[in-house]
Amino acid sequence: MECPNGIGILEKAIEKNWYTDVVRQLQKDFMLANINIHLDVDLLPEKLSAVLQEKIYVLLMEKYAKFLNLMYVMDIPESELINTKWENVVETSKQTTNLIINRIFNKVAVRKKFAT
Fold this sequence. Notes:
Elements: H1 6-15, H2 19-32, H3 45-62, H4 64-74, H5 78-82, H6 89-115
């Protein structure tokens, strides 16, 4: 499955001055799923993506029920998860991270569009 490039999406968020909103929405969704993660708005897109990927990897390996709950909270379509390659956990965590970043960016974009 071809996933959107998470780092590219984060760079687009910086261009639109939405990066802080994206990071805050990520933090909020993790909190709603009762998953501890510290995301700082000062993180570069590459580092933010790496932190997310590491957390997703741990959830996949050790806390799968929490991973599923996070996908529900973030409203990641089940069809996109099903189309993810599940042969390698590292690649799966990378693809899932890209799906998450894309979804959060879209949430922020919709909120910005209808805020005016």
